[in-house]
Amino acid sequence: MRASDLSHHVSKWFDGSGPGADIVISSRIRLARNLAGYEFLPCLTTRRQAEVMEKLTKALLSLELGEAVFFIDVDASSALEQDVLVERHLISRQHARSKGPRGAVIAPSESFTAMINEEDHLRIQVFKTGLQLRECWQQIDRIDSCIEEKVDYAFDPGYGYLTACPTNVGTGIRVSVMVHLPALKMTGQIDKFFNAARDSDLMVRGLFGEGTEAVGDFFQVSNQVTLGVSEEQIVDEFVDLIVPKITQYEAMAREVLLNQQSDAVDDKIQRALGVLRSARLISSQEALFLLSHVRLGINLGRVDGISIDAVNELFMLTQPAHLQMNSGGALDADHRDAMRAKMIRSKLCVN
Amino acid sequence: MLCQSCNERTATIHLTEISEGMRMESHLCEVCAQKQGLAIKSQIPLNELLSTLLAAQSEPHSSEAAPEAAADTSCPACGMTLKKFIQKSQLGCPHDYEAFGEPLQGVIQKAQNGHLRHCGKVPSKTPVDARDQIQLMNLRQQLEEAVRNEDYEKAAKLRDKMENLQ
Ligand SMILES: [Zn+2]
Ligand SMILES: [Zn+2]
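The joint structure predicted for all components is written out below.
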């Protein structure tokens, strides 16, 4: 299995089939682990880094997950292959671009992925669609324990699991939900969400694009504190407090749009559709921005004849690396924009 | 290019929006983009936290040698120094947690909302006695917190768990 085998379909965690997935697209839990007896990556020689990779790859490939996992040598992959994995959130941009022996072990359903020699020796992740954090924790806890039978993790009774960066020490856990908040954005209330996140010590990032941009109203919300609270406590707080609050804000904003500003919201949705159906050149940012309005329109029941699946697929497959991989190689920006526009037209035009 | 909203800071976020049928290019600084929900507050980088902390520690001495001395602490196992850790914000090996002692403790406490003790999963390989010990300690901590918050239902559950372990 290779990156090019994945790039034709939407990731399972983005397919919108999970509970509450119109707002909470997906749930993700990541654990950071390091091997005892080995330096962290900044001080690890290339030879020992290769040793770490061999040990972990062996342990991961023998996992019983109900599907055969496969290994990708990230160091030997092309930049385009790496970028496809980054766009699918299977590896991080940092992992793609760093140096030395490093790899990824991925389940074909993409519900499980492991990065070897990223910032820590091992980072495992479990994804599920919709709000399913408790299920994610059960699964990753089990996988982690299976790996732990085969290797020795660096663990300290006081500090817990030791990580290269002290911001991950303790549980090494990062609990995240990816949320779509177009109505909060449209009604100018996105601050509400940022403030709630800040008050609960949460970290917010954009789901698509690089750096601090949040294009398309998709956000990823994660815990920051990893020490002094148990994994279950963090998950419970998300499921019982944080997610209901975010969902409620967005649902209220959608109500307001429907009841008080239905002409304005219909106008936005239909104009977005108009541009998407007729544009001949469209950038990735513009596409995300307009598709976000269409996704909201479908979830509000204001759009007929377009399935949510089609829109979710476009979010994923119109990303730059996916577009290039699926058209057989590197394309310059103009050709990408033309190709993207064509793909969107063929998906959204009813003939 | 200056931010078109405040006309003060440099625009670093460039977006194309479609509004009222018009294609609009927005060029915003991070602050203004944040206000509109287009960008996200970046985290305080750990190295910033680290350097302010070390600076604060060396203040009473006022001599220039003090920060140097603090930054010179090194780990005997991997050779990582506090100074290098501040630059990279990544440690060199598991022993650094002990080698960098109090300065690192201070950083962890700041980054981890005041916490200093792990409370959660313990590797199943840990000898049973040691594992129970760690879990008991964690449960005791949670119990104290539950009592402090007057969450007696939770406290009762935690007490039952502790009794099972003892
Ligand atoms: Zn500005
Ligand atoms: Zn060290």
